[in-house]
Write a structure and sequence with these properties.
This protein has 712 residues and is an alpha+beta fold. Helix content is 19%, strand content 33%. One of its GO terms (molecular function) is serine-type endopeptidase activity.
């Protein structure tokens, strides 16, 4: 299988003798010098890595075929439900050939017009539509654009009727939340403290909640919440339908618990907050929304790791006073819920989405009693997401549905008639291959049962196939059997695509997350290696046919898995990974993630990190699989030093003839690319994985074109 007989020649990277004494423990860091991306030596080394990658890529003879297959199975159109405000709807659309999605407005007669087209603003395609928040009357919309890996993220306010900018830019609003007051003349939003007010090199978030009045300069925006005592807090904002109350959720980094504060808006400039939920004290996540009478609907995992829905008086500070409306189902974690309380309805309703082993269910409940009234029919055993309704009061619910072979499709449920109808949706450019999708359960080393989604060609025969195994396993993020162009292309070429729902994710609720974070993060890694072992032991694939792929936290997962068990894998693809877990707090937003991983500044937690940190577990002389590290040249999220240091360490250590490569991308973000770059990256990943697992398109493209012809 090896492409070269002799050990490969790599760009020279000096190994320094940096060894830090951490709590009496010597921690070696020979590539510390690569952390300085502005250093000329680092830039020369990185440029040599770019040339090495280009040389190898020219040898991937099927890359063009993969690119055209990815193009065929990529989806275009509308993939998210609309936001309905007043008599208008706002929706995003991305057509074939578009680099970015554009924002449309649809009037009561169904006429559509483009409100924001990012490519008109920036023809290079590097500016994207990041978020939009229409006022509740639908007359104005706050829009946030994101320029690839620039920390700006300004907010502009547009007049919906004319499309003209009426206010902004409001600066430093990256990862903001925004809540309009009725009337559309003011909103609350979150922005970072100006850099000049911070100590040099301070990477913390330093966010404040501010009130902005349309037409007034941003410098005059009043800070209503947040201070120096909460440097790493994220804030979520909700205003009641009548505009009389504001709720704020406060979360330290991506912690699995949050505080909730509620204020009466007698004076919007100076709300007096009552802390009704103390997240660290009850160790729970709680999301509030206001009911028509000003009381609260709380979605929480307090005393319910898979989630329950409660009601509470807005001044209840004791969780014992919460009334359970919809109880926890320990087999089906709660995803989201939606209140339908249009006066035209016989009674206010609650729509609840849950997921049982990867498949969604939508149930309808009486809002007053929580009693279940029925289940909404779904097109298949797929995934429901993004429940939305008209604000402030709705009788329609929109949601997105997809499965392994169905791109996101938008459905509308009418609570007055009880009917659910398909409204819009994305389509693929070509013919989606026939994919067989199912979930199986495998046992981890400690006996825990873990879900594995398998996507295989419909005419599946027995016998091993080239397999691409994906995982994430961090921050309580659940894996689902979503539609994925990469999976569709891989299976279309005759391979098996698998997704392991390892601990550290949220597939089985908060308990599942807790079982794979902090001191238990090593379990996510061993669960993933156990998934690989199961695929090999059951004859579905072989070591020489197995590639693994992960992004961000999933990049950490696959890199750690491969440094622990290099014998299991033929190839590893890590996008924007974390690799140096001793220094991750010094890069990007790493300092805000200690709740998930732990901190190297504490002796015991340093040992957790060292036990699986990929960079610290590279073994000289080990025969490592082929590695492809993909990442942005500037990564504000994880920091690009993870990729450079890990790449250098593996190139120095490996004894195998399989290459260790680095694919750097200028002018892109941690995860949001223009569409053409997104597809080019997918084609490179598939070509690389195909080359080192033996999946060839030569025999399969004819078959795909034949089935496409039959379908037409």
């Amino acid at each position: 299988m090896g492409a070269f007989v002799a050990r490969l020649s790599y760009p020279a990277a000096r190994r320094s003798d940096v060894v830090e004494d951490l709590f009496g423990f010597p921690v070696s860091d020979p590539y510390r010098w690569l952390e300085d991306g502005d250093d000329a030596c680092v830039q020369d080394w990185a440029a040599a890595q770019d040339r090495l990658f280009q040389t190898h890529r020219t040898g991937w003879h099927e890359k063009q075929s993969w690119a055209s297959l990815v193009d065929q199975v990529s989806s275009f159109g509308v993939s998210e439900p609309p936001m309905a405000r007043g008599s208008v709807m706002f929706l995003a659309e991305q057509l074939r050939g578009d680099e970015q999605q554009r924002l449309l407005v649809v009037d009561a007669e169904g006429n559509r017009r483009v409100l924001v087209d990012p490519v008109e603003i920036d023809p290079s395609g590097h500016t994207g539509l990041y978020a939009w928040w229409p006022s509740r009357e639908g007359e104005r919309v706050a829009v946030q654009m994101e320029v690839a890996e620039q920390p700006g993220s300004d907010i502009m306010v547009l007049d919906v009727r004319t499309g003209e900018v009426v206010d902004g830019p409001l600066p430093r609003a990256r990862n903001t939340s925004l809540a309009w007051l009725p009337g559309g003349d003011a909103f609350y939003y979150v922005s970072r403290v100006p850099d000049e007010e911070l100590a040099p090199g301070d990477l913390r978030l330093h966010r404040r909640v501010r009130l902005h009045r349309i037409g007034s300069p941003w410098q005059a925006d009043t800070v209503v919440f947040g201070g120096d005592d909460a440097p790493d807090h994220y804030y979520g904002l909700t205003v009641s339908a009548d505009g009389r109350h504001l709720a704020i959720t406060a979360t330290s980094g991506p912690a699995s618990h949050n505080d909730v504060y509620v204020a009466e808006l007698v004076d919007p400039e100076a709300p007096q907050f009552v802390k009704i939920v103390d997240g660290p004290a009850i160790r729970a996540r709680t999301l509030p929304r206001f009911l028509a009478d000003g009381d609260l609907l709380l979605v929480t995992d307090y005393q319910a790791p898979c989630g329950r829905i409660c009601t509470a008086h807005r001044h209840d500070t004791d969780p014992a006073a919460w009334r359970t409306l919809v109880a926890e189902d320990p087999e089906a974690p709660l995803d989201e819920c939606l209140v339908l309380d249009d006066p035209a309805l016989a009674q206010p309703l609650l729509l609840v989405a849950r997921t049982r082993h990867g498949s969604s269910a939508l149930t309808l409940h009486d809002l007053a009693s929580g009693r279940m009234l029925g289940e909404l029919p779904l097109p298949g055993a797929g995934v429901v997401s993004s429940l939305r309704t008209t604000i402030p009061h709705g009788r329609h619910a929109w949601f997105s549905y997809c499965d392994a072979t169905t791109p996101p499709t938008i459905y509308r449920y009418d609570a007055t008639s009880g009917k659910t109808e398909q409204e819009a949706g994305a389509t693929t450019a070509g013919h989606t291959p026939e994919i067989r999708s199912r979930s199986v359960r495998y046992r981890a080393g400690d006996g825990t049962e873990i879900t594995l989604f398998l996507f295989t060609p419909a005419e599946e025969d027995q016998g091993p196939r080239p397999t691409l195994l994906y995982g994430y396993g961090s921050f309580g993020m659940p894996m689902r059997p979503w539609f994925s162009p990469m999976a569709a292309a891989w299976v279309g070429a005759g391979g098996t695509y698998a997704v392991a729902c390892v601990r550290g994710g949220g597939e089985e609720g908060q308990r599942w997350h807790d079982a794979g974070r902090g001191p238990h993060k090593h379990r996510a890694v061993s669960d993933f290696n156990d998934a690989a072992t199961w695929l090999i032991d059951t004859g579905r694939t072989t070591r020489d046919q197995l590639a693994i792929h992960g992004q961000s936290g999933g990049g950490l997962l696959v890199t750690a898995a491969a440094t622990q068990r290099p014998d299991l894998y033929a190839a590893v693809i890590a996008e924007g990974p974390l690799c140096d877990m001793v220094r991750y707090e010094h890069f990007g937003l790493g300092c805000t993630w200690t709740d998930e991983f732990g901190t190297a500044s504490q002796s015991e937690q340093l040992q957790w990190l060292l036990s699986y940190s990929p960079y610290h577990n590279v073994t000289p002389g080990a025969p490592y699989p082929a590695f492809l590290f993909a990442g942005a040249e500037t990564d504000l999220q994880t920091g690009e030093a993870h990729v450079t240091k890990m790449c250098a360490a593996l190139q120095h250590a490996t004894s195998s003839d399989r290459p260790i490569l680095m694919r750097r991308e200028p002018d892109t973000a941690h995860a949001a690319f223009p569409a053409s770059k997104e597809r080019a990256l997918a084609a490179d990943i598939l070509a690389f994985a195909g080359k080192y697992t033996g999946l060839s398109l030569e025999t399969t493209t004819t078959r795909i074109h034949e089935t496409a012809a039959e379908a037409h």
